[in-house]
């Protein structure tokens, strides 16, 4: 899967925002990587309060991105290249500017019940800071918005809402799209009756995610959606973004026994380094990450399907977060991270720019940020007395704009002829698509080989997984086994040399080296910084 975040991908008309024509012009970049599916973040009409995750018309394209004709052309261009195209389905909430919500504001309207209204607010906090309940002057009542106040939650209890969503999905499928990435889909069923949550002393709101996630009717809604849209029947691709989703939920919603979701997209592994809150990141303890992924590998084996990702438009750049983004180690660490991730079982996701090892934005002032989450967190934390340097350090490490800077196509930029909506990275002269793609030892070429290996070898797709040396602080070692095929993956996830305890690993005598992240030495006694190797072991 290759994810495109359209506003930052490629600008064809010089307005500073990426657009559909820009994607069409650069499709060969994605195809040459070997991607099978392209996921487009939202391109629909939107006030852009949350960069398009606040939709005012599901069946029209925001003029900043282009037209429906451009979408039709993109669908064809994707299909001609043997790929599939999936759309972002954002139906936990709409924009407050959606006509459905505008009608709903009138208590006498038949659409009043399409959203969630109460005479008095509950004590719930929203994901973006502040209360999750907003008073509407039209009636004096409060509506629920789990995200910004411009993202009112739809009331999925109402069958008309569900049918309207399914009709919209069918319309897109008839237009040629191959499936959907479903935004926070496990929030659509709430636990009724809605009640105040437990509030911790000193905290302005309650944040009990279990009141709003994985509600009692979720399975029913997903099965109904599957039936009504013909998801299984038409072999459509679905991935459900699931916050607060553990292994049990993942199994429940992706097991082949039911027609619910094709796969989940989960968060445990990207929460390990900010357990105390996104603004207080702690250094990653490698064994935690290895063991977490291993637990999901074992827990879903034969019983569900997971997405494999280190980056998307909500996460910082992985080479800055889990790797080493210094000039000396950036390329090798990007390749080592790619190697371990792509050799797990599941569907690997490459987020635009990851394939050339892009780094974090490097912002140091709040006026450089555009993201509603970053601005909200900054306001809330500084009001609560957190020193500004601390807030900026947190955002610098974890803020969502880190991954939203425009793609540097060339050393000069090449994203737009105008002024980009968010500055390009200061490193563009040295980290850009043209230079990386031309380098046979570049990050792109390494991703291309990993993807080719997965396409060629069933053991990568389906082999069972075993983590070795789970507590080792620098080495990430595992095997994949299918019948008599067996792969050994061994990576030094540190910026120093690492000795390998050969006696504790399967013998690599006669093994074939399939891939490595740096030019390998002759033996395996000592690995270079960020050296990752994939061996095929003899049975
Ligand atoms: O990134 C996050 C984890 O801290 C959350 O901010 C994020 O909002 C959450 O993971 C859900 O994400 C999805 O829904 C949001 C939208 O802002 C995100 O971009 C989207 O991926 C609301 O639609």
Describe the structure in your own words.
With 539 residues, the chain is α/β, with parallel strands linked by helices. The chain has helices at 20-25, 27-33, 68-80, 99-104, 159-174, 218-229, 247-254, 286-300, 318-321, 330-342, 372-383, 388-398, 433-438, 443-456, 458-462, and strands at 2-4, 37-40, 44-45, 57-61, 84-89, 117-118, 133-135, 142-144, 179-182, 237-241, 263-265, 307-308, 347-348, 350-351, 464-468, 475-482, 485-492, 498-499, 512-516, 526-527, 532-537. It has a seven-stranded parallel beta sheet. Strands 15-16-17-21-19 form a five-stranded antiparallel beta sheet. A three-stranded antiparallel beta sheet has the order 6-8-7, with no helix packed on it. Strand 15 (464-468) and strand 16 (475-482) form a beta hairpin. Helix 5 crosses helix 6, helix 10 packs parallel to helix 14 and helix 11 (372-383) packs antiparallel against helix 12 (388-398). The longest helix has 16 residues, at 159-174. The radius of gyration is 23 Å and the shape is globular.
Order of strands side by side in the largest beta sheet?
Answer: 11-10-9-5-2-1-14
Strand count, sense and closure of the main sheet?
7 strands, parallel
Are any ligands bound, and if so which? 6-O-alpha-D-glucopyranosyl-D-fructose
Name the shape in a single word: globular
Quote the average pLDDT. 97
Number of helices: 15
Parts with pLDDT < 50 across at least 5 consecutive residues: none
Alpha carbon gap, first and last residue? 32 Å
Number of strands: 21
The helix content is 25-40%
The value of Rg in angstroms is 23 Å
The assigned structural class equals alpha/beta
Give the strand content. 15-25%
């Amino acid at each position: 899967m290759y994810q495109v975040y359209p506003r930052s991908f490629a600008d064809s008309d010089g307005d500073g925002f990426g657009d559909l024509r820009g994607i069409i012009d650069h499709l060969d970049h994605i195809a040459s990587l070997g991607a099978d599916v392209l996921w487009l973040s939202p391109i629909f009409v939107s006030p852009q309060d949350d960069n398009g995750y606040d939709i005012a018309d599901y069946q029209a394209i925001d003029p900043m991105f282009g037209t429906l004709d451009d979408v039709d052309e993109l669908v064809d261009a994707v299909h001609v290249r043997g790929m599939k195209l999936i759309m972002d389905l954002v139906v936990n909430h709409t924009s407050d500017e959606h006509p459905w919500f505008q009608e709903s504001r009138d208590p006498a309207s038949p659409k009043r019940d399409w959203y969630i209204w109460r005479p008095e607010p509950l004590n719930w906090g929203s994901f973006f800071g502040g209360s999750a309940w907003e008073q509407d002057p039209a009636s004096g009542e409060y509506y629920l918005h789990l995200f910004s106040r411009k993202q009112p939650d739809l009331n999925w209890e109402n069958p008309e809402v569900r049918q309207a969503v399914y009709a919209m999905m069918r319309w897109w499928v008839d237009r040629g799209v191959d499936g959907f990435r479903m935004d926070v889909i496990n929030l659509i069923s709430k636990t009724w009756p809605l009640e105040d949550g437990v509030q911790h002393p000193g905290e302005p709101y309650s944040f009990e995610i279990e009141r709003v996630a994985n509600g009692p009717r979720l399975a029913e809604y997903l099965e109904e959606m599957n039936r009504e849209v013909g998801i299984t029947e038409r072999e459509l691709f679905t991935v459900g973004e699931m916050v607060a989703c553990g292994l049990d939920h993942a199994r429940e919603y992706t097991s082949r026994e039911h027609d619910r979701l094709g796969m989940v997209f989960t968060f445990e592994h990207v929460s390990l380094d900010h357990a105390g809150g996104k603004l207080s990141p702690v250094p990653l303890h490698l064994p935690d990450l290895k063991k977490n992924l291993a637990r999901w590998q074992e827990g879903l084996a034969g019983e569900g399907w997971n997405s494999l990702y280190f980056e998307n438009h909500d996460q910082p750049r992985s080479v800055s977060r889990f790797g080493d983004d210094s000039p000396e180690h950036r390329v090798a660490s990007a390749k080592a991270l790619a190697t371990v991730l792509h050799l797990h079982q599941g569907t690997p996701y490459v987020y635009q720019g990851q394939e050339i090892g892009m780094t974090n934005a490097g912002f140091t002032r709040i006026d450089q940020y555009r993201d509603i989450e970053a601005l909200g967190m900054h306001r809330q934390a500084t009001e609560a007395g957190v020193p500004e340097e601390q807030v900026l350090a947190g955002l610098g490490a974890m803020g969502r704009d880190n991954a939203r800077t425009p793609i540097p196509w060339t050393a000069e930029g090449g994203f737009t002829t105008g002024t980009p909506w968010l500055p390009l990275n200061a490193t563009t002269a040295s980290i850009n698509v043209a230079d990386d793609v031309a380098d046979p030892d570049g990050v792109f070429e390494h991703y291309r080989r990993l993807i080719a290996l997965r396409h060629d070898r069933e053991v990568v797709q389906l082999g069972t997984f075993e983590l070795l040396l789970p507590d080792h602080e620098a080495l990430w070692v595992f095997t994949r086994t299918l019948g008599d095929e067996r792969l050994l993956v061994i990576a030094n996830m540190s910026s120093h040399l690492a000795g390998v305890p050969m006696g504790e690993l399967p013998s690599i005598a006669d093994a074939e080296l399939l891939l490595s992240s740096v030019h390998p030495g002759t033996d395996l006694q000592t690995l270079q910084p960020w050296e990752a190797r994939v061996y095929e072991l003899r049975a």
